[in-house]
């Protein structure tokens, strides 16, 4: 029978082997006046933060209710929300994004979401409103109980990284432009925002 030290090592190894990998929402955030206004000062950068999947993640200027506070008077009290859902035939979790602002349109790639509009969050996309930019990438995991968020502050606009040139690209009939792999845009047909009832919880 192994001694206490070896037993602890084996137990630790087994725990590591069986630990589920968490889905991670990685956000590269940018605001042109962050250096002087410190609009992201409440966000901890370059570290994972664990959330339960039944938790609604909110962004906005309300320090009492928002998961991530945006210190800008032009941001809404609650700007937008992320919530987990899972397809009935899938073992992986997905996310939906909802615009919670009455005064500001939220852009997910080139899809505009008005108040209480929502859509599935693409695996890689650009979220924009006002002067704020969030380049979002999802790293899939196995857990349906928890997920991580990870933030990185960038001094330059992520739009420069993905080389958006809408003026040079034709817009197909009944189609919209969505973010695709290899830092480019592709078109998907008949994709629109889903409007939900204001009283939805």
UniProtKB/TrEMBL annotation:
Give all residue intervals belonging to the FHA domain: 57-130
| Pfam (any one) | FHA
Q: Which UniProt keywords apply?
A: Cytoplasm, Immunity, Innate immunity
Q: What is this protein called?
A: TRAF-interacting protein with FHA domain-containing protein A
Please give the family membership noted in the entry: Belongs to the TIFA family.
Q: Where in the cell is it found?
A: Cytoplasm
- One GO biological process term: innate immune response
Q: Which domain of life is it from?
A: Eukaryota
What the entry lists under Gene3D superfamilies is as follows: 2.60.200.20
**Which Gene Ontology terms of cellular component type are present?**
cytoplasm
